[in-house]
Amino acid sequence: MLKNTHMSGLDPKLDKIDSLMTADQNRDMFNYIAPHYDGANRILSIGLDQRWRRQAVKRLESNAGHLYLDVGCGTGDISFEIVRQDPKARVIGIDSSRGMLEIGWTKIRRYGVESQVSFREGDCLDLEFPDNTFDRAISVFCVRNVTDHNRAFSEIVRVLKQEAKLVIMELTEPDGPIMKPLFRIYSKTVMPFVTKIMSSVSAYKYLAASMAAFPKPDQIKGAMIGAGMIDVQYSQMTGGIVTVYEGYKTGNKS
Q: For FRET with 113, which of 22, 67, 145, 174 sits at 20 to 30 Å CA-CA?
């Protein structure tokens, strides 16, 4: 069982969960920063977040007309990228933050994809969908915020069809001798400056802390395998700031 140990002793509730915040605290934070979320991400990542998302969707190995689940869809950028790469796709996105979803609903109308994309409030620890519903699932920059990684992976695998693919992309703290100290400097100087102007310094201090606290790739890989995935692999991008995990629900690859 993956458990967070970085906050041990500070809050009894946090000793029992895999994230640095409770689900309620996390939802409140994202509701608060929602109006500035997209803009802050573009600036803080120097625009790389869009490239990362394109790469994550590309790894889904899409086929025309698939039904996709976007877990932690936020304001919807991953869902819209899926439709861009697979114009016949149907996508259901779930997120616990209504503030983020309200922006996503506006984008659905703006892009004219009402027939293909829908967003709804949901909990990845208790998905409302029947078993074996989706052809593909993806979760980008969400798992760090989930209070029980094992349960979340099990729920996602449950609603995937046999042989379906899952892609997870997560922000991670670099380990290298050059990138790690550079990231530490960046997170303590640039991030607070930008977020003080745009939204919430505390929210992005949480971002840096959650990246540092996130389990190592082999642990996440093990949790995915434990949930019923096979052929699980991971790779890193941009010097280790982003890690991508890929696997298939038990069975032959589709």
A: 145
